[in-house]
Design brief:
The chain is an alpha/beta fold and 350 residues long. Helix content is 37%, strand content 18%. It folds into two domains: 191 residues, 3-Layer(aba) Sandwich (Rossmann fold); 132 residues, Glycogen Phosphorylase B (Rossmann fold, 3-Layer(aba) Sandwich), CATH 3.40.50. The strands form two sheets. It has a seven-stranded parallel beta sheet, sandwiched between helices. A seven-stranded mixed beta sheet has the order 10-11-9-8-12-13-14, sandwiched between helices. The chain starts with a strand and ends with a helix.
Length: 350
């Protein structure tokens, strides 16, 4: 029986929205009616991908980075405002559910997107919030309150394999959860090489712009066939070219899929959804974690230690040197397991 499903990704970079794309596709394939609720770039991205759906704008968490203050400290400092945002989005969702007769909710890291009497699913790869060096003593208390927020939901979905293949310690938790496999909007296929490297940017400001200003001149100086995707969803989807570098503000999924397929190596943040895309497409990468974001720093270190992908700090980035060193790293290679997502769907009656 067809259901009316509300799916709501967090607006923190583009990854939460992009990994909802395969979930939305499967919902539509199975004949369900999909509604999308989010804000900012995440909402705009999904409007470009699924123009036929019904969209709602939720109150923003107002996530932003500082040039100098670590992201985790800024988030902790803004806890009171963060909780108010959760309360506001919870009230907004109650209205959406009532007015649109929603049967089921899938919230990607949006803690207020649940409703009494409606089956609600929390999707996340961060069930265990890792703490930066020197603050690990805070981890127990923070994760206690984190679990309290998640337990308001009926079920938890983890976008990874049951062996914690990509997420590692991020998904080791006391919570009961269903692993739904890697959620990538892409599929693996071979194409002739067109670019030596592709730079794919995203993430909150000002760090996205800071990295772009650091990287773009270095890419141009390399003088090799390259493509640079700035990750600017709201900008016009124009194109320019400097030397051997083709520059885009934004590419839709099918266009970005082709770019990555045609590129020898990918330069990107170490955001989890980006890593799922790289793993599914079997790509080599240079990872540049967002400064002060413990999750990205943990993942970048994890895959460097495992000799999968070379990682370098944004502040000391030498792209030519990083590309040379990355040759000794194996690259990502994890197969999608669509049966896990299908099993999770069937468990929920979808």
């Amino acid at each position: 029986m067809a259901k009316r499903v509300l799916i709501a990704p967090l607006n923190w970079g583009l990854g939460h929205a992009t990994r909802c794309i395969p979930v939305i596709r499967l919902l539509l394939q199975r004949g369900h009616q999909v509604f999308v609720a989010s804000d900012g770039d995440s909402l705009e991205l999904l409007k470009k991908e699924f123009a036929q759906l019904t969209f709602f704008e939720l109150p923003s968490y107002n996530i932003y980075y500082s040039r100098n203050i670590p992201a985790w400290l800024l988030t902790l400092w803004r806890t009171r405002a963060f909780l108010k945002s959760i309360s506001r989005e919870h009230a907004a969702v109650a209205n959406i559910v009532k007015e649109n007769k929603i049967d089921l909710i899938i919230a990607d890291n949006r803690y207020g997107v649940w409703a009494r009497g409606i089956k609600s699913i929390f999707m996340s790869h961060q069930l265990n919030l890792v703490m930066p060096p020197g603050t690990k003593w805070m981890g127990g208390v923070i994760n206690f309150f984190h679990r309290r927020l998640i337990r308001k939901f009926n079920s938890v979905w983890v976008p990874d394999m049951p062996e914690h293949t990509l997420s590692g310690d991020l998904t080791r938790t006391k919570l009961t959860a269903d692993f739904v496999g890697l959620l990538s909007r892409f599929e693996r296929h071979e194409e002739p090489r067109r670019y030596k490297l592709a730079v794919v940017l995203s993430g909150p400001e000002p760090q996205r712009t800071l990295l772009e200003k650091n990287l773009l001149p270095q890419v141009i100086m390399l003088n090799v066939p390259s493509v640079f995707v700035r990750g600017m969803v709201k900008e016009k989807m124009g194109e320019s070219e400097i030397e051997n570098v083709r520059i885009y503000n934004y590419r839709k999924s099918d266009e970005l899929h082709q770019i990555i397929s045609q590129s020898e190596i990918i330069v990107s943040r170490s955001g989890y959804s980006t890593l799922m895309d790289l793993a599914v497409m079997k790509k080599k990468a240079v990872l540049i974690p967002t400064p002060g974001q413990p999750e990205q720093e943990y993942l970048a270190t994890k895959f460097m230690d495992e000799r999968v992908a070379y990682s370098i700090d944004q502040e000391r980035l030498d792209l030519e040197d990083a590309l040379e060193l990355s040759a000794d790293y194996a690259g990502f290679d994890v197969r999608q397991a669509n049966d896990l997502l299908i099993n999770a769907f069937e468990k929920q009656g979808l």
